[in-house]
Amino acid sequence: MSRKGISDKVAVIGMGCTRFAEHWDKSVDDLLVDAAYEAFADAGIEPADIEAAWLGTMISGYAGITLSGPLKTQFIPVTRVENMCATGSEAFRNACYAVASGAYDIVLAIGVEKLKDSGFSGLNSPKPPNDGTAPNFSAPASFSFLAPAYFEKYGLSTEQGREVLSRIAWKNHYNGSLNPKAQYRNEVPMEKISKSPMVAAPLGIMDCSGVADGAAAAIIVRTEDAHKYRKDPMYVKALSIAAGPGDGRLRQDFDFTSIKENVVSSQAAYREAGIKDPRKEISMAEVHDCFTPTELVIYEDLGFSERGQGWKDVLNGVFELGGELPVNPDGGLKSFGHPIGASGLRMLYEMYLQFQGRAGKRQLDNPKIGLTHNLGGTPMQCVSFVSIVGKELS
What's the CA angle centered on 40, arms 39 and 45, to 5 degrees? Predict the structure, then answer.
């Protein structure tokens, strides 16, 4: 794949993020204003300084006026984008490339989703037209296939597998307990996780990410302009997104222990950023833990663990805050929550705080390189996004 890349061409100079929660008292407009104005204040700019904006939302608004209305932007271009659960990341990617191209000097990327107050619990969006032959699985059911397939392939008993999945959820809830903006801010005992009510066997309630409202935002400029605004910007090293052909359920070699889109997007990002050994070179990662077995498979797809070794690394604490490669230090989708359009930017927000030493009780020791990862769709048919960001210029 030929690509010129974006490494060190743009920088983030301000970010904002609401708490992710059941915001019964806040509208989409409220959430957008809260996230955007935190980002403006953080960057030390005025709203009128923004020359263009990219809004990511899946079902919480249509067209650019979803943003221009509440922010009262004055006739600047606002582009609304959607790419399933990678929607917030897609807004960020488009905004970064617009700045890198020279079209704009300073732009806003923002994502929002309001999944409560709708009469439904979760994402209630219309299905695209199809020929009626595709199986109709819920999201938990689609991802539940990963667990028994992984256990069978690598020789884990049901009890061992349950311990691994529970450890992933326990880790993310522990991290979220240290995060004042997380949806769920309590530690959850392993026993409670492992015995939670079943949703789609073998996944229980505690294996599933939270359903939340929220918004997150970033201010982006060219790298050479970043120090006009702050001394500690976050530099973008790579942006990669892979949309699969959607034939997983038809392929004989698809065994639910790897998601090809994850592999392709991460390898492209590593090439762009010059990453040779992700486990050693990456300081921290935020990955798309929509369900606990998804996070397990992601470890191996992204090269954090060797094939068949991810479960051992989980039990050995490799991905915990004090481990070799902390994953989801802010609590992840599991504990921070998952308002679809905002999640990708929320992940970048954690990288930004960690680089600046502002992550509070979950602060890591001098992280230099971070990775964020989104997965949208099902294991059989999805899009996968990976960003690499850094504290310093290469």
Answer: 145
